[in-house]
């Protein structure tokens, strides 16, 4: 079993692909991969202005709002969708023209991206109840804290501060999760 704590202070910062902002990379596979060759990627970004999203060929993306009043996304071929911190995440193809409009002030968001022909993913907020089992067998599970939290991992206490993450790989990624709050759950499986 492999388990790593990814501290917020150690997350990699890099410019957006379109150069109009900064992204904070929480985790990427393979480790050290760039924007053109990742298999999967979990990141956060601050959005300070309206604009178009970067295009990522053959990538599926899910976006959730972490902080701020929200954002309205226009994904080509779909009705406009408002995302707020209380809304469910939105999954969409990252290679379809997409634009964003802030509802008010800047926001921060959470992005999960997977290469369409090799991986699948899900993103959901844990709200104090056990996560619904996924129909895929995850090879990776990432828990991102939005508040201080102590997790029981196989009898070991793991403490996370805001924006720290716990990344589990292999059999540990498929273990049942105890009820938890203040966390976002990302699960990734190979196709």
Structure description:
The protein has 191 residues and is mostly beta strands. 0% of the residues lie in helices and 53% in strands. The chain contains no helices and 17 strands. The protein has strands at residues 2-6, 12-15, 22-29, 40-47, 51-52, 59-67, 71-75, 81-83, 90-93, 98-102, 107-115, 119-127, 140-145, 149-153, 156-160, 165-169, 181-190. The strands form 4 sheets. A 6-stranded antiparallel beta sheet has the order 2-3-4-11-6-9, with no helix packed on it. Strands 1-16-13-17-12 form a 5-stranded antiparallel beta sheet, with no helix packed on it. Strands 5-10-7-8 form a 4-stranded antiparallel beta sheet, with no helix packed on it. The mean pLDDT is 93.
Give the gist of this structure.
Helices cover 0% and strands 53% of the residues. The chain is mainly beta and 191 residues long.
List the helices and strands and how they pair.
Blueprint: E1 2-6, E2 12-15, E3 22-29, E4 40-47, E5 51-52, E6 59-67, E7 71-75, E8 81-83, E9 90-93, E10 98-102, E11 107-115, E12 119-127, E13 140-145, E14 149-153, E15 156-160, E16 165-169, E17 181-190
Antiparallel strand pairs: 1-16, 2-3, 3-4, 4-11, 5-10, 6-9, 6-11, 7-8, 7-10, 12-17, 13-16, 13-17, 14-15
